Amino acid sequence: DNMAVATPLFFATAIVLRVIILRLTESVQEAESFGQAQETANIELKSLQGELEQRVRQRTAELELRASQLQAISNVARSIASLQNMDELLPAITRLVSEKFGYYHAGIFLLDENQEFAQLRASNSEGGQRMLDRQHQLKLDMNSIVGYTTLRGEPRIALDVGADAVFFNNPDLPDTRSEIALPLRVGGRVIGALDIQSIEPNAFSQEDISVASILADQIAIAIENARLFSEARAALSSSEETFSRYVKQDWGSFASQS
């Protein structure tokens, strides 16, 4: 009788234990799965945190670069503000742009009287000096960066890859890998272009255009002020000469009547 009672009890206990073990096993598996999911989430969180920190560092570096560039523009504008002689102003501009921004070549082009060519008027580099010696000028067309900018009145960036590579065949500037040209505007009228070249590939981006355009505007103002000062000085000299001639004629007439 005891066996008859114990046997079903044994099996019932075994079944209960089996169910408990299955439940515990499932709980352990769920816990392990949850732990793996939590670990994966932690890894993703750390990765996201790293990406955010990297973005912050990049953005901070970009802001610091822009601030440095704006400070350099301010320094250039302050340095050229007092120069009123065009022959002194233009070389000073190219020298300061090269020094403050670290580019190996900077050139100032001004349009000729017929508005057909952009003539190189100043440059800081040795190659630029050779170009000045032979009175380098570019047609206002789409065949050069400066020609495009002066014709269209738009900034232009070129890199030594793809279709732009054709522009980098100047034997006077063989080290150029990037170039940016910006229109010099006075009252909505294009008077020339600022040409900057770098030995670094991809040295210029679309974000650089806004900052470089501020520099070009400051340069255009300085050039226009120098031109107006030169015209005013020439007009004054002409007036003084006319006045002197009139006084001499009047005095001579008075003396002859006496």
Number of helices in the DSSP assignment: 5
Low-confidence stretches: none
What structural class do the secondary elements suggest?
alpha+beta
Arithmetic mean of pLDDT = 81
Description:
With 258 residues, this protein is an alpha+beta fold. The chain is built from five helices and six strands. The chain has helices spanning 2-80, 86-101, 126-133, 145-152, 206-257, and strands at residues 105-111, 117-123, 137-139, 156-159, 178-186, 189-198. Strands 3-2-1-6-5-4 form a six-stranded antiparallel beta sheet, sandwiched between helices. Helix 1 (2-80) runs antiparallel to helix 2, helix 1 (2-80) runs parallel beside helix 5 and helix 2 (86-101) packs antiparallel against helix 5 (206-257). The model has no long low-confidence stretch (mean pLDDT 81).
Write the layout of secondary structure elements.
Blueprint: H1 2-80, H2 86-101, E1 105-111, E2 117-123, H3 126-133, E3 137-139, H4 145-152, E4 156-159, E5 178-186, E6 189-198, H5 206-257
Antiparallel strand pairs: 1-2, 1-6, 2-3, 4-5, 5-6
Short overview:
The chain is an alpha+beta fold and 258 residues long. The protein has helices at residues 2-80, 86-101, 126-133, 145-152, 206-257; strands at residues 105-111, 117-123, 137-139, 156-159, 178-186, 189-198.
